[in-house]
């Protein structure tokens, strides 16, 4: 195991501190001053290097998410958003909120739940902490807990479209279709967040697909692709909506388009696999 640079830096700190205790004349004080400045600059440079490395690690996480995305079922909304600011507060809640955000971004959802619950212990009812906690619970598939958390957020912020589409997604997962339609339709009417509007159309398409209302499903998936052509999953689901409505030719054209749109995306690969299945005269999966 590589030794931590912190050990040597801490030892140097202690050495300087001992020298300060025994200062006697001006020349020695000036020498210690220069030593402290040089020490500070080395630590500051190391912090900058480590911060840059930390951001590079986030890029690794993003690449991992791209190659490891499951196509067994519909994806949850993509977690994005600005990093919360850490500010000086006597209770320290903002530190745990920022930690929770970072852990969600890294895919450590259970760790994020712990951090955000601690934030809410320190600052009960803090809306940003509640919203992030809902995300962490949803991505951890604690759907009942997430639903309760997001409902608290919506009580205080009825126009929070991201919280609303997350509730809609959870309702789709729990097959509570009536409530899903209510929340997703409200997010579309609000139209105050581009990502929320995109996912609201996509999940409404899933609701109607699962209810075998194929023309309605097609309409919402088509609108999804107009709003966000990079949401390759919508090509796959639109193809299924065409296929089960009896339009196999259009389904095949849609899967072909999805595969061409991004052949490296897991959903692009699934479009290609499903197209090959259909060309062999076999039925694509119904779920």
Topology of helices and strands:
Layout (H helix, E strand, L loop, with lengths): L4 H17 L4 H43 L24 H14 L2 H14 L4 H13 L3 H14 L4 H13 L3 H14 L3 H17 L3 H14 L5 H12 L3 H14 L4 H14 L8
Brief write-up:
This protein has 13 helices and no strands.
Gyration radius over CA:
26 Å
Q: What would you give as the CATH superfamily of the largest domain?
A: Tetratricopeptide repeat domain
CATH topology (fold) name of the largest domain: Serine Threonine Protein Phosphatase 5, Tetratricopeptide repeat
Query: How many strand units?
Result: 0
What's the overall geometry? Answer: elongated
Taken as a percent bin, the fraction of beta residues is: under 5%
For the biggest sheet, the summary is:
none
Relative helix content: over 70%
Structural class: mainly alpha
- Architecture (CATH level 2) name of the largest domain: Alpha Horseshoe
Count of distinct structural domains: 4
The parts where pLDDT drops under 50 for at least 5 residues are none
Mean pLDDT, to the nearest integer, reads 87
- Helix and strand string, N-terminal first? HHHHHHHHHHHHH
What count of helical segments does DSSP give?
13
What key attributes describe this structure?
Serine Threonine Protein Phosphatase 5, Tetratricopeptide repeat, 4 domains, mainly alpha, about 75% helix, about 290 residues
Structural features, described:
- With 287 residues, this protein is an all-alpha fold.
- The protein has four domains: 61 residues; 72 residues, Serine Threonine Protein Phosphatase 5, Tetratricopeptide repeat, CATH 1.25.40.10; 54 residues, Serine Threonine Protein Phosphatase 5, Tetratricopeptide repeat; 57 residues, no CATH class.
- It has 13 helices and no strands.
- Helix 1 runs antiparallel to helix 2 and helix 7 runs antiparallel to helix 8.
- The radius of gyration is 26 Å and the shape is elongated.
- The two termini are 47 Å apart.
């Amino acid at each position: 195991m590589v030794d931590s640079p912190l050990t040597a830096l801490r030892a140097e700190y202690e050495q300087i501190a001992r020298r300060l205790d025994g200062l006697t004349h001006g020349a020695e004080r000036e020498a210690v001053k220069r030593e402290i400045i040089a020490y500070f600059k080395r630590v500051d440079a190391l912090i900058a290097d480590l911060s840059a490395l930390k951001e590079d690690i986030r890029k690794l996480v993003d690449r991992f998410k791209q190659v490891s995305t499951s196509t067994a079922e519909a994806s949850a909304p993509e977690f994005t958003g600005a990093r919360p600011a850490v500010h000086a507060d006597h209770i320290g809640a903002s530190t745990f909120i920022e930690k929770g955000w970072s852990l969600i971004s890294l895919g450590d959802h259970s760790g994020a739940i712990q951090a955000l619950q601690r934030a809410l212990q320190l600052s009960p009812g803090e809306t940003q902490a509640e919203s992030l906690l809902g995300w962490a619970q949803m991505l951890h598939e604690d759907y009942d807990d997430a639903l309760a958390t997001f409902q608290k957020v919506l009580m205080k912020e009825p126009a929070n479209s991201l919280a609303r589409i997350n509730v809609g997604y959870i309702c789709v997962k729990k097959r509570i279709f009536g409530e899903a339609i209510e929340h997703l339709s409200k997010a579309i009417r609000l139209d105050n967040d581009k990502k929320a509007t995109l996912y609201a159309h996509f999940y409404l398409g899933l609701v109607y697909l699962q209810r075998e209302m194929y023309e309605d499903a097609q309409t919402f998936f088509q609108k999804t692709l107009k709003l966000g052509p990079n949401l390759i999953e919508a090509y796959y689901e639109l193809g299924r909506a065409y296929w089960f409505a009896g339009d196999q030719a259009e389904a095949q054209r849609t899967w072909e388009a999805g595969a061409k749109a991004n052949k490296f995306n897991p959903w692009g690969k699934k479009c290609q696999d499903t197209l090959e299945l259909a060309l062999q005269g076999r039925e694509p999966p119904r779920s």
